[in-house]
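The authors assume throughout that readers already know how a fold can be written as discrete tokens. What matters is that the chain and its backbone geometry are given together, residue for residue. A single example would do more here than another paragraph of explanation. For illustration, here is how one protein appears when written out as sequence plus structure tokens.
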Amino acid sequence: MQLKKCLLFVVLFNCATSMLFAQNKQYAFRIQFANKPSTYSLSQPSAYLSQRAIDRRAHFAIAIDSLDLPVFQNYTDTVLQLTQGVFHNQSKWFNQIVILLSDSSKIAFLTPKNWIKQVDYIAYYPDGLHAKKTNVLEKDKVIAKGNLLKTTNGLSIYGAASKQTSLVNGQLLHAAGLKGDGKLIAVLDAGFYNLYNGFDSLLMQNSIVDQYDFVAHDNDPIPGGDHGSYVLSTMAGNEPGLYVGAAPHAHYALYRTEDNNSEQFIEMDNMLAALERADSLGADIATMSLGYNEFYTPTYYIFPKAQLDGKTTLAAKALNKASSKGMIAVAASGNEGGNSWNYLLTPGDADSSLTVGTVDSFKNDGPASSPGPNFNGNIKPDVCMLGTPAALLYTRGNVLYAIGTSFATPQLAGYLACVLQAAPNASLYAVKEAIRKSSHRYALPTDKQGYGVPDFAQALSNLGIVLPPIKEYPTQIQITPNPCKEFININLPNDLKAVVPYELFASNGMLVYKGELNFNQTNQASISLPAYINSGVYILSIVIDGKHQKCSFLKF
């Protein structure tokens, strides 16, 4: 997976952990049924699919079939009764359920049942799995900062995210009003703790439309660490002047599928269940900074590379099936480059995925990025995004940088939402091909980069959509002296009677100081720079008449 490989990055951060209460040991079994009786009808899909999902199927001319019908409830009830087990999750696509048993010998009660096709032992939990938790979504900690949906078009608005934005011409999409509006992105990860500062527009606009913890089997995906929050920030972070993500206007479904405490087959079942929920919800995109090749319990197992052929592992099958239902699935290639594995992880091998590797800001290979192709020879990764390193919105209101395909992958998902917004009638295959063909190595792909770094403006052009020229708001403020030592004067072209808040950012996008400027019927105000501000380049940000004004200066 991508926390070992599942949380694909190489900086350290503090993972907030849930309070766990010890339980009895539990054994997890996957039970696949031989047939699928049903009380549901294909002609009445609203009983098991949302209207959004039904509309998406109709839009792409995808038939509703027996795979969409729920698992036969009588089978599930009988299994639980015979084994005295606890239900964990299910898959209608593969007609199976996962149960937890405190006494593993009771699985034998299923042996004589001819409606049971296969039983697999997939996980062991010495203290139980469905533990109690205390963390909740911390919306009450959000401090509203006004209408953050109104952003200017200059690259300065992206703050620390400006490099990863400009590398793929993301700012051109945003300037044209393409910010993911109307699109739903499912984020499969390991936890979304500390989700407040920088996510205020996401939370205040109620843009999180669904959330679920497929590990603990409850509606709260927040515990499990804050890796998911970092992943989410590359798309939904919206702190103009500090950080703006790839799809700040999209809606999101947050799903915890990854268990940091173990590395077991069941995590692929969690992923499968989350993809099915996203499909039923009508998600347009699913992004997974997760990947697998090695498992330590119940017994040690490593996938033979021949199984990473794009269609064999449960994770790859799940992703391919999600794609066939009308979602675009985005997966990380992995961080195994240069180590003993030195190859893709699954589901990054999946035939239908848009698999993402990493590059640096000069489009050089990310050394740790997993190379392809998959075992069948299909080019993987498909494309690369900036992840060596990527800028992330730190949930306490600052920025950090981290290396990993975990943070390259959601950037692609975010801009993909913008492309889908612009080209609603394009087929999903055409959209994926337009992105691949826009990439800088399309004519000569490599194992490390696939087709290379996409240009999303060119991708839209490939779909017949030409973006208007970008408009930059004129910079109206001037700073003197520049360079400076202890103070700066801020000069406006016209007199202004107003008290204006300001923020000072370091060149890496980190907020270092803030305060207020008092323009008392003059065109000039001053800032005395604190002694702790070291020499370097800084950016002053103020808002006048609803427009962000930026100006950089050098402090000796």
About this structure: The first helix runs from residue 51 to 59. The first strand starts at residue 26 and ends at 33.
